[in-house]
Amino acid sequence: MKHTFQLTFLVALACGLTSAFSRANEASTAVGLKLFSEQIEPVLKQHCYSCHSADAKMVEGGLRLDGRELARRGGDSGPAVVPGKPAESLLVQALRHEGGLEMPPEQPKLTAATIAHFVRWIELGAPDPREDAIALADQWPTAVRQHWAFQPIPQTVAPDKSAGTGAVDSFIQTRLAAQGWPSAPAATREDLVRRVYFDLLGLPPSPAAITAFAIDPAPDAYEKLVDRLMASPQFGERWAQHWLDVVRYAESEGYEYDRHVPDAWRFRDYVVQAFNLDKPVDQFVAEQIAGDELAPQDHEALSASIFHRLGPVRRNAGNPDIALSRNEVLTERTDIIGVAFLGLSVGCARCHNHKLEPISQRDYYRLQAYLAATQEKNVPLAPPAEQQAWEAETKRIKAEMDALKLVLRTKTGEERVRMQAMLDAMEDSLPPMLATIPATFNDFSNRTPIHVLRRGVWEKKLEPVGPRPPSILVPSEMPESPADSSQPRTELARWLTATDNPLLARVFVNRLWQGHFGAGIVKTTNDFGTKGDRPSHPELLDWLARQLIDGDWEAKRIHREIVLSETYRQASSAPSAIEPARLDPENRLLWKFNRRRLSAEELRDAMLAVAGRLNDEIGGASVMTPVDPQLVDQLYKPSQWQIAKRAGEHDRRTIYLIAKRNLRLPFLETFDGPALLSSCARRESSTHAPQALELLNGNTSNELAPAFAERLVAETDAPLGPAQRNERIVQRAFELAAGRQPTTKELLASLLFLAESSLEEFALAIFNLNDFAYVR
């Protein structure tokens, strides 16, 4: 009874204290609100709003004082108002003319009484009745809010079509007609078949395939060819590379150690398969963002979630800097979501409100909040017994290494070097990794609380935020989600793929258009913001986006619309088009087709195919090929580069070669392969001397030239005289490499060359032909 009385008394006391505190807080708030309305707001309006409000011609220092949250967030220098802490509030320092701050500028300080009012108001918690009722999106200029990319995708109707003209052509020809420009004539069948093979498969057509299409009289011959190519498993290999560029796919973490992410190649295979199966784009996006939340037991969905582990990671920060390293990881993951799925450079708002786009710093951290619980997890695929044995052996070796490290600290000069070598040898003796999926999972017990960070500095935390899409893209009244939402990334994926999100479909179809024409309708494919390139054909872009959405997000329908168009089938030269060439040198209006150089991967794969060496095996672990030992020696651990033992593996398609950040293959680097550190929006096509040197003297071309020569001999092995045989060899070389017969001039030059040089040298020369390296 006594204990019951004591408990009752304590509960009553606690409730009474809580009630008393509540009443005290309410009283303080009431006093503070009265002080604000009578003393604070009038001063702000009279002395501050001219430079620090929506009405200012230019907001000084990024600081707005015409809203509660705006004042608390502050500007470039930090928070102007920190409730309860006048000493940390920059507004008070500015009123006192301290720390190099002056408010009002170039005028005497306000009275001591006025400054005291501000101090007292902040001590009371800075209560402020002004809701930023004008949401940030509403404070941006009208022109920004009406930017084309932020508007809903309309139900666009194609212009009137003439007989036989498709919807794509009707948009293109309407623009050309307005200029009074004709389209280029149709490409030859030989050029077209080579173009569409490289475009859809990334490989050259065989001479037999070229001939079959060239003589096919059927009116739907081209349509059947396109359908056959898009049904090929090599279609996914070609188009996966475009997406891997965008998401900066790599299988190692970069920086000094460049540690490998075990089995990261499963993401590459996921993307290849997704393109081959025509996985709906909304599902494709959702699985990468939230595969582990959507289907935590499904290996395909978990492989998609590797998306979050593709960025470079610094692993040498040490224990004191674990939080800093975590911040860098979250930053990487947030930035790639912005450019890949929204076409917006959200990363520029990490340290301050975006200087060029309507993205606030708060928007940035709200987007990051969706990822707050995201952690790495390697999901084992081996049977439990094998997994246990692996763990035991790994634990034993690591224990020995830890003991050696303790001894190492006591040693100094040659002993430490010798013992370090022993440590390296022990690490190399660790059992090879078992099959895993390096997936992403939520760990809510270790969720990172997300705050707006002053100038992006981890230690300088401002107000906490919860998940929410960028303000410019959602209604102003939309609240933040709870910071501890149970499926935050599913929520993000649901918003990204919602039909009222104006960006995802536009951004995605623009990437498809770029893949076919070399430049997007919006040339800046990663930047759809107000400072990005304006679309050359905005109605066409919206029509394609609407087709994607209304067609259940099936991308192959869009590919087909594009490659079947007359615009795509134009010749790449229009000799009489003098005015278009002068007024539209970049061919933005598509008055002809753009001749293009093969990408680095296409060049290497074409060499393998022409030489008869291409290993067309699909999928699986990535391959390390022989490279210059000096390059391997520059790695932190040269033992990371383990050359595939089976020689045939070296002839796999280039997409299956390992993507290692600190060792880019020289051939790929020379021909503009991406750096793998950040999103590659578009492959450049540079022209410089090292490319000619690589094709003439490089290992790749010189190793494949003999195989090409052997193929030429084998395929012209007939009872012919030497002159006739050489002529047939030249013809076959041009058929295989350029998809055509040699001209009379080329034939004579080749025969003269063969009279003085070896067939291997001739094969190498063919690899250096413009018509081998370019499609037209």
From TrEMBL:
Molecular-function GO terms, alphabetical: electron transfer activity; heme binding; metal ion binding
Alphabetical keyword list: Heme, Iron, Metal-binding, Signal
SUPFAM superfamilies: Cytochrome c
Protein name: Planctomycete cytochrome C
Domain Cytochrome c: 27-233
Range of residues in the leader sequence: 1-24
Keyword Phosphoprotein among UniProt keywords: no
Family annotation (PROSITE patterns): CYTC, PROKAR_LIPOPROTEIN
InterPro entries, alphabetized: Cyt_c-like_dom (IPR009056), Cyt_c-like_dom_sf (IPR036909), Cyt_c_Planctomycete-type (IPR011429), DUF1549 (IPR011444), DUF1553 (IPR022655)
Residues passing through the membrane, by range: none
Pfam families recorded: PSCyt1, PSCyt2, PSD1
Lineage: Bacteria, Pseudomonadati, Planctomycetota, Planctomycetia, Pirellulales
